[in-house]
Design goal:
The protein has 251 residues and is mainly α. Helix content is 65%, strand content 5%.
Length: 251
């Protein structure tokens, strides 16, 4: 987490939020480093944009609209590597999740092809729902890998389970057999969700940091009223149109 809290930037983007993810500890920190870096880059870049905006406002040689464009140019340069790092972090998390899921599932699927597996699945499918759930839970608790892998390694309906229930039991089994890998898998999924959920906040904070130019007038009571709001893109378009008559014909 940053030594000083920059209140100009949303707390949702503080790199310290990574520590709030469930299962974040010494085991999962190594696989979440890229996520933390992306958040840190975003927080620092947004702070730099706010600083640039404050500095531009002191430049009396520039009009407010020119200041806005100058800040927007600076912000774009700052945010391009941030957005790339953010996207790379999400992609890396998704790839690592996919690879780890395959790794955890491989022994389950391999054992599910054993000769006794089909008989075990048929036995569970013939059971009533309540006893079936109890029997699977008991097999997990006792570490009965022959039963668990037979039931959970094949198609869920072969054992009389719905997919969600089968996934729930599988996650519990994997957490019991390989706790560190399962914890990392959960943490990476939550980190990917965090980045995907907060990319909109990131873009909004970018827009807010750059700001807009407001044209105002005073009402009869002397209060300022905003009559028009200019975004950087609108200012650039206005300048482009104004420069058209000065273009030099080619040929």
């Amino acid at each position: 987490m940053a030594d000083e809290v920059d209140t100009r930037v949303s707390a949702s983007l503080d790199p310290g939020v990574i520590a709030l993810i469930d299962d974040y500890d010494e085991d999962t920190r190594p696989v979440l480093g890229q996520t933390e870096t992306a958040l840190s880059m975003a927080h620092k870049a947004l702070g730099a944009i706010h600083d640039a905006k404050a500095a531009a406002a002191t430049n009396k040689t520039l009009t407010p609209m020119a200041q806005l464009v100058q800040v927007d140019d600076f912000a774009t340069k700052q945010m391009q590597p941030v957005m790339k790092a953010w996207g790379n972090a999400v992609e890396a998390l998704n790839n690592n999740v996919q690879n780890l899921e395959k790794e955890l599932m491989a022994p389950v699927q391999q054992r599910a092809t054993a000769s006794m597996a089909s008989e075990i699945r048929a036995h569970f499918k013939a059971m009533e729902t309540g006893p079936r759930m109890k029997a699977i839970q008991q097999a997990i608790n006792e570490g009965d890998d022959i039963t668990v892998t037979a039931v959970l390694g094949g198609r869920s309906y072969l054992s009389g389970l719905d997919p969600e229930m089968a996934d729930s039991f599988l996650m519990e089994w994997q957490a019991k057999q390989r706790p560190v890998e399962s914890k990392r898998l959960r943490a990476m999924k939550k980190a990917a969700d965090l980045l995907n959920d907060r990319v909109k906040i990131l873009k909004n904070e970018w827009t807010k940091a750059v700001g807009v130019h407001e044209e105002t007038k005073e009402d009869v009571q002397g209060r300022k009223i905003v009559t028009k709001t200019w975004t950087p893109a609108e200012v650039r378009e206005m300048v482009r149109k104004a420069n058209i008559p000065f273009a030099v014909p080619v040929g």
